[in-house]
Write the structure tokens for this entry.
Amino acid sequence: MPRTYESLTHSLLNSFGDRKKPGRLSIFVDVEEERIYAVPRETEHIDYAKKLNVDYDKLIPVHIDTENYDGLERVVGVVTGVSGLEISGRVRHLASDLEKAHELAWDFIKKGEISVGEVEEDRINYKYAKK
């Protein structure tokens, strides 16, 4: 059974980071249960979602981007609401769930060990919101 995480740690970033691009950690936020799952590097969102016992429309993808500044990792981006689950799987989310997931992701980051740097991207992608 996949495990949940309470905060962004160096260990989590070392284990799951660099997913699809250097410094990226992809997570799923279960907005109903307020749980966070880390998506493994070599696994597609849509495949990982199948392992979770969660309604897909309540499972929101979030990408956390980090960069190394003088030997220290810093969060520089948070993008919520888009992955293969939405693109290929045609899953749609309520706008309010996207917003809640984005907020929970920021709480997850702020509770963690990795500082926030100069944020280059902080957005919610509403393209896959339910109409």
Summary: The chain has four helices and five strands. The radius of gyration is 14 Å.
